[in-house]
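User: I'm curious whether this sequence folds into something compact or stays loose and floppy. Could you predict its structure so I can see for myself?
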Amino acid sequence: MNDALDFLAITFVLGDIARTFGVALDTASLLLLATYGVRWIGGLAFGGLSDRIGRKIPLLITLTWFTAGAVATGFFSIRSEMRRQASSLRRQSRMRRSSRSICSSSVRSRES
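Assistant: Here's the prediction. I'll summarize afterward.
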């Protein structure tokens, strides 16, 4: 049930996710397909491993893998936000420089 809920919920916000990370919607859809398309491989591998050695070790492995992915996602989100703010600051700096040059040229023309 929860897998279906995850799949349905992400389809509603996929456009927002793509915009946040600055990727095309096609690319985000392809990544979603890859994620859900190979999900069964992990189920087969860790299901078999759980049957042989118990559930504790495979659960710890998958939780560690999930945590590493979540941390990496956080870093990429921070990097994306920093890039967006840097471009905004560059634009503001250019606008200030151009307004200064306009002001100084108008002052020079008045002095002449």
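Summary: Residues 63 and 69 are 10 Å apart (CA to CA). The chain has one domain: 2-111.
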